[in-house]
Queue: 2 jobs
Job 1
Amino acid sequence: MDRAVGPAGLLQVLETGGALLAAMVRTVSPQVRAFHAYGVSDPEGFAAMGVVETLVHTHDVTAGLALPWAPPADLCDRALARLFPEAPKNTDRWPTLLWATGRAELHNHPRRAFERWHSSPLGEKALP
């Protein structure tokens, strides 16, 4: 990457990766299953994993550059529902996603050490 493009260029790379993931998920049948280190997943699961990775790493970049940033709450809510069904439901979604991934504390909840998310299709048991 050309350093001359600065933070805007880095954020554009993250946005482009998200667009590529969205395009792939839209074209694959929901019945398709594929390997992931946390368990076989479906397109919805891979989309949620991509969303979480994009959001938390965008957070890392913007925090490192002291830029204010927060994703839409509904996007966080969908990712939480899919990958972290055990996460608290009555909390702000973005801080909860940061908590679920082990990146932040959440009021009235013990600090969480991230181990894995629920990548298996909903309704299917996650692999140990």
Job 2
Amino acid sequence: MQILIRDGRHGDETLREIWQTLLDERLVGMTRFGRHLLETGDLRPGITLEEVADVLWTYISVELYELLVLLRECSPERYADHLATAITAAICRPSV
């Protein structure tokens, strides 16, 4: 559904507004989640809330799903593993 909204936004003002709302709400949600993650103390030292939110916002985008699952035929399980590995590497405190 998000792909249809994203692709249709160029020719439809309503879809453009819906797409922007989806992007904004995703960022709000990932900022809240990022704040929670920062409170755990398990994230990389010095990482900011903005950096955490940007990483999360980017990695859960429909565009990444489209590229890996729909176009490259990555299985949903492999996609989930890839996301977990990439997000962990980007924001978490290195394990010893």
